[in-house]
C-alpha cells in the first residue's frame, strides 16, 4: 500500500511526492493492512476471501484526494495478486474524548538498550510511557501543539505481529484494542497521523471501534 500511495502522489501531486521522499521522518499519512471481510472459503492454498478494504488517513487533503483518484482508476498489488478496487469512500475523522480504538495495522513501540533497538509490547510497563512520549514528540514536531490529555485506560487484548520494514528487516508490533482518554486535537492527531513509531511503513493505523462500519468488522 505504501507504493500505491506514492504512485498516486507521483501522478497527481508530483511536487508533494518529491517533498515526502526527502523527509527525514515519517510522512504525514498512515495506512492499514488489507482487512478481509469475507465471505471466506477454504481451499488447498488456505483461507481466501472475496472482499476487503484498506484505510488511509492523513491531515493533508491533497494526499487523500490523490489516493482516492488513483484508486478509482487502478488496481492494487497484494503480494503477487492484482486486486481490483471497487470504490473509494471519503470520510471525515470524528474526534473522540474517550473511546476504544482498534488497530487496523500493528502499533510499533521501541526503546534503545545499549545501542540496540528493542521492540516493546503492552506487557512491558515502558510501552505505555513510550506511546505517550511518542505522541507528544510527534504532535509537537508536526503540529507544533502539545496533547492536553492522553491517558491509556486499558488494553483489552493484544497479540504481537511482525511486519517487514525493509529487504531483510522486520519489526514486531502489537495488534490490540485499547481505550484512550484524550482531548479532541490529540484524538484527531492519533487517527490521522497514527499511534506509535514507523507509521510511514505500515504501522500505527487505528480507528475508534464505534466508527468502524458494521460491514467492515
Automatic annotation (TrEMBL):
Key words of the record: Antiviral defense, RNA-binding
Keyword field contains RNA-binding: yes
GO molecular function: hydrolase activity, acting on ester bonds; RNA binding
One GO-annotated biological process of the protein: defense response to virus
Domain of life, per lineage: Archaea
Signal sequence range: none
Domain CRISPR associated protein Cas6 C-terminal per the UniProt entry, residue ranges: 94-206
PANTHER family: CRISPR-ASSOCIATED ENDORIBONUCLEASE CAS6 1 (PTHR36984)
Family to which this protein belongs: Belongs to the CRISPR-associated protein Cas6/Cse3/CasE family.
Name of the molecule in the record: CRISPR associated protein Cas6 C-terminal domain-containing protein
Organism field: Natronococcus jeotgali DSM 18795
Classification of source organism: Archaea, Methanobacteriati, Methanobacteriota, Stenosarchaea group, Halobacteria
